[in-house]
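Re: [help] complex structure
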Amino acid sequence: MKNRLKVLRAERDWSQADLAARLDVSRQSVNAIETGKYDPSLPLAFRIARLFDLTIEAVFSEA
Amino acid sequence: MAQSRASRLRTYLIVGVAGFFALMLLPMLIPRSPGPPGVGRILVVTGLVALGVGWWAVFAVRIYRTQDEFWRTGERVAWHWGGLLGLLISVPVFVFIGLGGLHWLNPATDAGPLAARAFTSGYMLPVMLQAVGSTLVGLWWRWAKR
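Output below.
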């Protein structure tokens, strides 16, 4: 699955650690999601989308 | 928030491991009499070991629940595939030792039939219990998610 997490994070000038703290996950989780090595669960995907005030489809898309 | 999760994980790990080893090592402080252990010692030591394992189980659950989903997934993958790999590797090793491979490697190693039976039992116990545990949890999961 592809995602725009890195771009969205960069737009807000957040580090991976900042985003991780806002999502209450580890920095490694953010890195793994950004690099496409880990697909988040639906609840975490919703949390991510809500944090950026977007829909899930606007953040994640099929590879 | 992520920091507090990390610090909770560290605390659970330290307390869990320290308590586990303390309970496991406690039997060493009980005076031993020469000869095979009596019923009292067997029960006390077994009880302390069970307590140590229970202690670790409580903290293992706390650690698992405190981890985020990425680490939980990693742990499940490690236990499933790592455990399976280790189990598969152990089979030829078990057969090799069971057939007297150690004696072939070093003729001074002559275990005898009693030790061979003890080795077989010692090998089979965790393997069988792991298979039973895995089957029961698998059945419970399918039942709970039906």
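The interface with chain B takes residues 17, 20-21, 24-29, 32-33, 38, 40-41, 44 of chain A (CB under 8 Å).
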